[in-house]
């Protein structure tokens, strides 16, 4: 799933690609992806893309007086094409969910796989999208201070820290991959309780800000086509089960639950202990 750093990089790339362009046509091919009914996709036609922003994991295409909000879910992505295909796409065919034609370019929003979770919203204000209205503090925002972070941990009580980092109502934009990376940088177990001592809170806070800002810098300026691979190449533990930890050389381990998983280094994070799978469903809450 695209998380804060990739969505930030996507927003910047799309701003360069389509900023200032007029929408000539909208082809919606995945009707179930459209979650609003107040405005039709055709209402975007004739409007100009003012800018492209990010709210947590949501992309926001500000098109004159309305906003096209996109949540890419687990398997969604966006491609800016320098030419427009001759034939118009057919509904329900292939991974394409919506195509915006802007002059001699087009923007394709796609979703791979059979589980269709990509979501599109056409609204007057981003806050009309419930997922955006409920977002917690953004790690790139000035409000994300150590004191505010401590407030998040206090609110979470004794919840597992892996789940706390992923809870969008507490902290916006962090998902499965970057929570793995943050906990590895902080040398902290995914099972650790949010009710931790001040010095551990400080270490975790610094890991959050350092991980997110370093990834933003690393992905900055990349084209949308290159962002996903660049993210994968920069991972220290996530997605690297069975490989040597880049920090200590121990084998990166994996815990599998439901249809997802997380990775960690026993030496760096759990004093050598191998974590069991039991009770992992709690981390998804």
TrEMBL record:
Enzyme Commission (EC) number: 3.2.2.23
Hydrolase is among the record's keywords: yes
Lineage: Bacteria, Bacillati, Actinomycetota, Actinomycetes, Mycobacteriales
Keyword Lyase: yes
Cofactor: Zn(2+)
Similarity section: Belongs to the FPG family.
Limits of the Formamidopyrimidine-DNA glycosylase H2TH DNA-binding domain: 135-227
Protein name: Putative formamidopyrimidine-DNA glycosylase
Membrane-spanning segments: none
InterPro entries: FPG_cat (IPR012319), FPG_N (IPR035937), H2TH_FPG (IPR015886), Ribosomal_uS13-like_H2TH (IPR010979), Znf_FPG/IleRS (IPR010663)
Source organism per UniProt: Corynebacterium glyciniphilum AJ 3170
A matching Pfam family: H2TH
An annotated GO BP: base-excision repair
Superkingdom, natural source: Bacteria
